[in-house]
Write a structure and sequence with these properties.
globular; Rossmann fold; binds S-adenosylmethionine; alpha/beta
Length: 246
């Protein structure tokens, strides 16, 4: 186990080289979704924010203080590289912590009772941080219960896998509105496996796809945004985003 599995130098290297080449439309779709969220507080706990390679500076600028939590010792330095200027212009204070903020979530939350919380593409990575997949799945099921009474959001991998890429689709970013329902995901009137198939077809999925165990992170009835992320020319993630307002 280590921060380098889902972050660290490998992540920074890939993000630095790919974000302008392949990730632009996904980054724009995330910024568009974030712009529609209405966080209650002027204080944000940003969990797994890394260097904010895919994060919108404009969205961050609404906060007066941001506490960034990440396992990666480089996160704070690189986050300032990407967003420091925008935060200074907005008068927003940035405080960086190296900590396992999922394991210590209750402590972190109680230290900041008046903050909104955003899990920034971290919950879908939990399965890589343990050898026990069942445990990871259990931890993520009904994750919202750990955040009862708090204002929070998350964007995370729902599933990921290989795609049949064509030059035309290489820069596309498919996106859908969805809803959290008892069967998992509802998408344009289709639920469960049918909704998943719709997502897979939309990106020309091929081969075996990986479940990131996040289908029950959010409470029932929550509006969701599904955003395709072509991580590389031959591998795609479906990101799921939602905000639970208080
Ligand atoms: C895919 S990266 C997030 C990328 C980020 N959203 C961006 O735009 O650059 C996942 C991050 O979550 C961090 N992470 C994973 N598990 C964590 C935990 N339990 N507590 C804090 N950070 C964690 C990793 O170190 C990594 O930086």
């Amino acid at each position: 186990m280590g921060f380098d599995i889902t972050g660290g130098l490998r992540w920074h290297g890939r993000a630095f080289t790919r974000r302008k080449k392949y990730w632009q439309s996904t980054i724009a779709a995330i910024a568009d979704w974030l712009a529609q969220t209405r966080p209650t507080h002027k204080h944000l706990l940003l969990i797994g924010g890394s260097a904010g390679w895919m994060m919108s500076s404009a969205w961050l600028q609404q906060f007066e203080r941001i506490d960034l939590y990440d396992l990666d010792p480089l996160a704070g330095l690189l986050f300032r590289f990407n967003h420091g200027r925008a935060l200074r212009l907005a008068g927003c204070m940035l405080v960086c912590h190296r900590r396992d903020a999922i394991h210590d979530l209750e402590q972190v939350l109680s230290q900041h009772p008046d903050a909104s919380i955003f899990f920034d593409n971290v919950l879908g990575q939990l399965r890589f941080r343990t050898d026990d997949e069942e445990l990871a799945e259990k931890e993520l099921q009904k994750f919202y219960r750990r955040l009862q009474g708090r204002d929070w959001g998350s964007i995370h991998d729902l599933f990921s896998g290989p795609i049949n890429e064509t030059a035309q689709s290489a820069l596309a970013c498919e996106s859908f509105q969805g809803l959290q329902v008892p069967e998992g995901l509802s998408l344009e009137g289709q639920t469960g496996a049918a909704a998943q198939t719709k997502l897979l077809r939309a990106v020309s999925a091929s081969g075996n796809w990986m479940d990131h165990f996040t289908s029950e992170v959010f409470p029932q009835g929550l509006a969701l945004r599904l955003i395709a992320w072509r991580f590389s020319p031959h591998y795609c993630h479906w990101l799921q985003a939602g905000w639970v307002s208080q």
